[in-house]
Amino acid sequence: MSVRNLNLLHPRDQIIMIINRIYKKGLTTTSGGNLSIMDESGDMWVTPSGVDKGSLKPEDIMCVKADGTIVGPHKPSMEYPFHKAIYVERPDIKSVVHAHPPALVAFSIVRQIPNTNVIPQVKYVCGPIGYAKYFIPGSNELGNSISDQFKKGFDSVIMENHGAVVGGKDIIKAYERFETLEFACRTLINSKIIGEPKFLTEEQIYSFNNQIPTDHPKMADVEYTSDEKEIRQQIKGMVRRACDQGLMMSSYGTISVRWKGNDFLITPTDATRWDIQAKDIVQIKEGKCEAGKVPSRSTWLHQKIYEMHPEINAIILTQPEYLMAYGVVHKKLDVRTIPESWIFLQDMENVPFGSHFTGNETIPGKISTANPGIIIENDSVLMTGGSLLQAFDRLEVAEFSAKSLVMGTSLGDFAPMNDEEIDELRRAFF
Predict the structure, then answer these.
(1) Could you list the residue ranges forming a coiled coil in this record (predicted)?
(2) Residue 305 in this model has a pLDDT that exceeds 60
(3) How many Å apart are CA 179 and CA 25, to the nearest integer?
(4) Cα separations (Å) of 54 from 16, 21, 383?
(5) Which residue in 117, 126, 200, 341 has the fewest CB atoms around it within 10 Å?
(6) In total, how many domains does the chain have?
(7) Half-sphere exposure (CA, 13 Å, Cβ side) for 238?
(8) CATH number for the domain harbouring residue 139
């Protein structure tokens, strides 16, 4: 069932949907982590203790009723007391996610709080991060340590030598916060391997949020032709593929495809990416969008690229963790690693944060056949193509290249292809 029908899903089914996603993305182990939902009657639904997270079924989910009665075939998670303590302190929170993903654990064992000013989206989704002192799992002391942080207003908390816990108004928002926080930690760790991360000021983040258009012109009549419907399906399928491949997160990622002339279709804003449906896609025609929908915040940038580059028919804007490491340290990605990387990308420039703001034509001016992708520092990666598949393929190649370079840093000095080898590739493939 679609997450847009979340209110029609029983809490136990919601938990199964999200724990499956967490486990398949490698964000928890068979035995680690726990999820809960507080329903409208004051009953808490929570994952069981000692049951394989990779094979949980709805009937395995336990219920701790408002009067303390426990219902279900297992024991509830031994850490359910801290979930309960959070709900007591924060009635606005209706779901809690706790697990031990590698990057968040790394921060917890060095006892550091990740700086969410690394990327605006991270700051927007996660907010400031709390820090809970260590106490033995399942203890009242741990519950008090964590709930005190939530009482202070934090929605995301690093648990010292343990992991992290986040809350949300529903389980989807809690999961998005959890996934985004782990992405931020991975990006920061990878960036430390290749350099030193640069952070945004509060003024830069304010400027970013302030320049995003909030009122798009609306079209009076909408035409849904066969080819337009086909593009919707292409975008829907590729968004899900990008999420599965780790190239896009629940909380961030935009895909657009040219329809006819300079008209195009684009993903909406503030939508859970892995659940996007064909009907959610927004048509942009003559600079106007469908009524009742809010297109991506980057719609202006896509429009300008299509207008300036008739050879481009698809654009992807997203945040893959290894490419973003280069974006965070403001370091150029050397695509001369292997022949495929250079053939697909040729070059990949960095542009400063702010180059993607509405009205700034820096990125459309730099995009070319020999420079199909751009790293926007402290923000995202933009990739273009003559087709959606080509843009996606280039994005995958770029991320794999970045990953190889990050990994290779610990092995020694790089030996990229030399100018003679590049010229040979140019003669053979262009």
Answers:
(1) none
(2) yes
(3) 10
(4) 10, 10, 34
(5) 117
(6) 2
(7) 28
(8) 3.40.225.10
